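Service request form, structural biology core

Requester: graduate student, group of Dr. S.
Request type: structure prediction, single chain
Budget code: on file
Notes: please return the result as C-alpha cells.

Sequence provided:
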Amino acid sequence: MPFYEESFLEQVREQNDIVDVIGSYVGLKKKGADYECCCPFHQEKTPSFKVSPSRGIYKCFGCQTAGNVITFVQKYENVGFVEAVQILAGRAGIALPEVKYSAADSEKEKKRERFFQIYSDATVYFYKYLRCPEGQNGMDYCKERELTPEMMKKFGLGFAPVNGHHVINYLKSKGYTGKELVECGLASSRDNGDLSCKFWNRLIFPIQNSRDKVIGFGGRIIGDGEPKYLNSQESLIFLKSNNLYAFNYARKSRSGYFILCEGYMDVISLHKAGFDSAVASLGTAFTQGQARILEKAGHNLYLCFDSDSAGVKAVRAAERICRNMKLKTKAINLKPYKDPDEFIKNLGGEEFQKRIDEAENAFLYVVADLYNNTDMEDPDESSYFKNFIIEELVDFDDEMTRLSYMESISKRFKIPMDYLDSSVKKLAMAKADLKPVFVPEKLDRGRDENKGKKSEQLLISYMINDRRVYNAIKDYVSKDDFTVGPYKEIYDRLFADLEEGHVEESKYISLFEDVDEQNDIGQLFTSSLADVETRDDLSKAVKDILISVKSNAYDDFCKNAGNDDDMIMETIKRKKDLESIKKVQINL
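Core staff response, request fulfilled:
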C-alpha cells in the first residue's frame, strides 16, 4: 500500500483550514464557535452537520459521519486517501513528496502506470480515427443515434478501424511491447505470433475510473457481427465488478441519487438530458462490488433497466444485492418504451423526471410486475405468486424490515397478514433446520458487536473529554479490552498522548485510509456524552461502561479461544479480572 509520512499529513491538515475547505463545497453558517449546514452526505431539511475549526473535525448528528479535512474530501469527492491528500496538497501549494512503496508494490505500480498510458494513447488514436474520413461509418452511427458533438467529446467516443493491425502498429510506434499490449488486454496473440487488436470496426466507449483515467474500452460493432458489445478483459487496472461506466462523472452530481442503467447509450442519453448521475454496469450483471461503490457515496439508487421481462429480472437481481445494504433502491417504469434512450428521445427529460418522482420501491416493483402477469383465479398461478413472495421475504435479514414489507404486501395484494407471517416463519425454520428463525445467530452477533463497539467508543470518549475519568480508570484499561480494530490500533499512541494531557483529534483520523475506519475514529472525538447531574452519577456511568467493555472483550476472547492449556489458563485469568473490576470503586 502507498503511504505518506505523518509529518507531511500534518502539514496538509494544518495548511487546509477545515472551514475553508468544507465551505468551498457547501455553504457553512457560523453558530457560536462552530459552523453548521445541511449534511452533504444525506438529505435533510434541518442542519445537523457541524464543523469545529478549533478541533479540525466535523460530524453529522443525523447520519453519524465524522472525520477531518482529508476524510471530508475523500468522502465528498469519492476518492481514495492518497488522492484526497494530493487534492489538498495542490490546494495549499504544497509540494508532494514521493509516495512510499515496498519493492513489490513499486514494480506493480510502474506496470499500472504503463497500462494507464497505453489506454490513454489508444483512446487518443480511436478518438481521432472517428473524426477522420476513414471513421465515417462510426460517425454515421453516432448521428443515427442522435449523439451530439458535446456528448461525444465528454465521453471520449472513438472508432476502431476495420484493420486491427493499424492500432497495434501505432501503439508499438509509441514504444509499447507486444507483451504489454497483451497483458493489458488490448491485444491478442495469434498462433503465428502476430498480434491483433481486440477492438476493430467498433464504436469505442472509453471506460474511466473515478480519477478520470481510462482503464478499458467498451466496443459496439458497426454493421453485422458478434458480439454486439465487447468489453476489455480484466487486467491490473480494470476489474469489471469494481467499476461503473460514467461513475467518474456521476460521483460529482449533486442530485442525491444514482441512476443505474444497462447500457452505455442509455447513460449518455440521460446525461445529455441533464441526468448526470446515470451509470451502468460493464457488460456484466450488477455486482456487490459495484453496489459498495454506490453505497459509499451515500446516495439512493434508481434502477432504470429495460421494461421487458429481462429488465424486471435484472431489477430483481440488483434489489437482492442492495437489500441488506444502506442503498435504498427504487425502480423506474419506462413503459411503453423499452429503454432510457428510447424514452428520452420520445418523451424528453421532463417526463423522465416524472418517472423518477413516481418510482416504486424496487422489491414491490418486482412483486407488482409478477402480480400483473399472474392469473390470480388460477390456483397454480396464485400459489406460485404467494410462494415467490414468501421465498423472498425469508431472505430479509432485518426483522423489522421484513415485517414492514409483509404489512405493505398484505394490504396491497390482499394476502392475509397471518398467512404471510406463519408461512415465512415456517419456511425460515425449515431452512434453518428447525432452529429458531427470528433470533438468528447472525443477527444476535451483529447486535453484540454494535453494543460492544458503542461501549468502547463511549469509554474512550469519556477519557478524552474528562481528565478525571482518565486518571480514575487508566490502571484498569488495557489494549486487550478493545475489539474494534481501529480503537485497538491507536491504543498505545492515544494513551501516551492522554498521559501527556494533549490529544490532537484530527491526527488520529489520518492514520487510516479506509473511510469507515476514519469514521470510527472521528466518532471518538464527537460523541455526545450523557448528561449526569452529580459526580456519583458520572462515577456510576463510567463504571458501567468499563464493565461493559471488559465483558465484551472477555466474550470475544472466549469465542476465539482454543482448548489448549495456555488458552484455558488465560480464560480463567480474564474471568477473574472481569469479576474483580465489578468490585472496584470508581470515584470522580
